[in-house]
Amino acid sequence: MPYRRRVVDDVLDLLFPSLAAIALEGAKGVGKTATATQRAASVLDLSRDRLRAVVAADVERVVDEPSPVLIDEWQLAPAVWDVVKRAVDADATGGRFLLAGSAGVAPGARIHSGAGRIVSLKMRPMSIHERGLCEPTVSLRELLAGAVPPISGRSPVTLAGYTDEILASGFPGIRDLPELAREAQLDSYIARVVSHELPDNGAVVRRPRALRAWLAAYGAATATDASYSKILNAASAGEDEKTARVTVDAYREHLTRVFLLDPIEAWTPVFNPLKRLTKAPKHHLVDPAIAARLVRVGKAGLLRGDGARVAGAAGPWLGALFESLTAQSVRVYASAAGAEVGHLRTMESDREIDLIVEGGDRQVVAIEVKLAGAAADHDVRHLNWLHGQLGDRLADKVVVTTGERAYRRGDGVAVVPLALLGP
Q1: What are the angstrom distances between the C-alpha of 168 and each of 17, 218, 221, 233?
Q2: Other Cβ atoms closer than 10 A to 241
Q3: How many whole angstroms from its chain centre is CA 280?
Q4: Are strands 69-72 and 97-101 parallel, antiparallel or unpaired?
């Protein structure tokens, strides 16, 4: 299968010639190895037990490989990181090392931070733009620039099409499979995380069934900031033996380390008049297809409004999954633009904005996500409120929809079908 270019490739094209070492981080299956291999002269795959043993016995050998050298699953031999750091100290010539990792370093492993030597880039599953559904007409980077560009374009993707994309997943090796094979692969992915990835990365999973139930409850809480107590209660409803909160907290830490959980943190504005904002993260799995498989709702069920939600969240569950699909893409585009993504909710819950994209110059693009074809006045009221609070710091206001047409409303809000939004 030919390589499908990713948004991060543009970033690597700019950075790698000048930087000696770059670490690509992200969940298994997002495409780190395939992307890094495009630039590697030699590959050390440390997921292979025998090679890992050889490297552990002579860790300095990674410096002697023809460069650029890709060290895949480097976290399985953490000493490699310090060797690369020292090699960069000795010779900072660009384009020498690529490290790919599908988990953070296990607790207790002592390595140098890599600051100033190894630059980390996060990869996520394929954004809507990377899936090639249509050519985007609206650039997030341009919106962040504050030029208030004209908004236009027509999308061929319908609500049913977006539902297909949610279920297909953004994992390159899974999304093009026939439906039954794709579902089997997603089930296997979840099972492998529970039975192999967590234990391999230092977690002790005594009750795999309870962990899977917690994951399903977390998936049902997609795109909400439901408390962890509510998620735990939903996971153990009807169970005589409740999982201890401290155990779940440990699972959550490990699941975040292997990038299966990908929460969006609450936005904390700097030098800003906004007060009394919540600090709870919004819950997202690395891919909404995993949430759909955990909850066991398919296309027909989603389109008729099926899907239980934790803590009585409003709206159909398809809306939550569409927001997660949008967040996945926006985070890919924001990362390429050097921006961060958060969410906004006031403590009184009277104001809420799904995604806040903040660039390095503190310019902000505020994004609401709607499972609708257009944007009504009711849908934009929080965006316009934020404009009143931030003034010129708000570079643009956007409603992402499932509709056909991109346009700008009279109040300045850009209405953009998800398929037309790109990097």
Answers
A1: 35, 20, 20, 30
A2: 8
A3: 17
A4: parallel
Q: Is the pLDDT of residue 182 over 80?
A: yes
Q: Are strands 394-401 and 118-122 parallel, antiparallel or unpaired?
A: unpaired
Query: Which stretches of 283-325 are assigned E, i.e. beta strand?
Result: none
218 within 8 A of 297, measured Cβ to Cβ: no
Please state whether the predicted TM-score (pTM) of the whole model is above 0.85.
yes
3 state DSSP class of 282: strand
Phi and psi at 72, nearest 5°, equal -90, 140
Q: Is 415 left (phi over 0), alpha (psi -120 to 50) or beta?
A: beta
Q: Which residues contact 216 (CB under 8 A, 6 or more apart)?
A: 235, 294, 295
Cβ atoms of residues 23 and 114 within 8 Å: yes
Phi and psi (nearest 5°) for 397?
-125, 130
pLDDT per residue over 213-243, tens digit each? 999 999 999 999 999 999 988 888 767 677 8
Place of tokens 């962890």: 228
User: What residue spans define the domains of the chain?
Assistant: 7-122, 129-422
H or E segment to which residue 214 belongs: helix 208-220
Among 423, 341, 422, CA closest to 133 = 422
Q: d(Cα 52, Cα 221) in Å, to the nearest integer?
A: 39
Q: Do 300 and 294 contact (CB within 8 A), yes or no?
A: no
Identify whether 66 is preceded by a cis peptide bond (ω within 30 of 0): no
Residues 6+ apart with CB under 8 A from 169: 125, 175, 182, 186, 287, 289, 290
**Of the CATH numbers 3.30.360.10, 3.40.50.300, 3.40.640.10, 3.20.20.370, which one belongs to the domain with range 7-122?**
3.40.50.300
**DSSP letter at 75?**
G
Q: For the beta carbon of residue 106, count every other beta carbon within 10 angstroms.
A: 15
Amino acid code (one letter) for 303: L
Provide the pLDDT for residue 40: 97
Q: In what side-by-side order are the strands of the sheet with 352-358?
A: 340-345, 352-358, 364-369, 394-401, 414-417, 407-408
pLDDT in tens, 16-44: 999 999 999 999 999 999 999 999 999 99
